[in-house]
Design a protein that fits this description.
Layout lengths: L7 E6 L2 H11 L3 E3 L7 E6 L2 E7 L17 E5 L3 H10 L5 E2 L6 E5 L5 E5 L2
Parallel strand pairs: 1-4, 5-8
Antiparallel strand pairs: 2-3, 3-4, 6-7, 7-8
């Protein structure tokens, strides 16, 4: 087997409208059409996609106080300070990377951990 490239990551959410606000407005991802009939939304990042799947009643709170040590998805950003300020402007929590590298962690409305990193 040879894996060529990542295609998408599926993220469970409980409230689609609230999650669309986070991924589309706060993170600024481009929403794309999806051919599925069950509730959800897809977002495009280059050749990669984020698939939101509605799963009522699912709670995904981080199990470790250092969010980067929980399952998470990471995005490269061009300006980490601007990304951090955007999250704070929308009242989303921000936790700096415990390693001291240029990265912050946040949580989507359902507690899924998101890493934003700058090279």
């Amino acid at each position: 087997m040879q894996i060529v490239r990542p295609l998408h990551t599926a993220i469970l959410v409980t409230d689609l409208q609230r999650s669309e606000h986070f991924y589309g407005t706060v993170l600024g991802l481009a929403k794309v059409e999806r051919p599925m009939k069950f509730p959800g939304a897809w977002y495009q990042i280059g050749e990669y996609q984020i698939h939101l799947i509605v799963a009522p009643g699912v709670s995904i709170e981080p199990r470790n106080e250092k969010w980067g040590r929980n399952p998470h998805i990471a995005f490269l950003v061009s300006d980490l300070d601007a990304a951090k300020q955007q999250l704070l402007n929308y009242n989303f929590p921000v936790q700096p990377s415990a390693s001291g590298r240029p990265a912050v962690f946040t949580q989507d409305p359902d507690g899924n951990v998101i890493e934003l990193s700058q090279q």
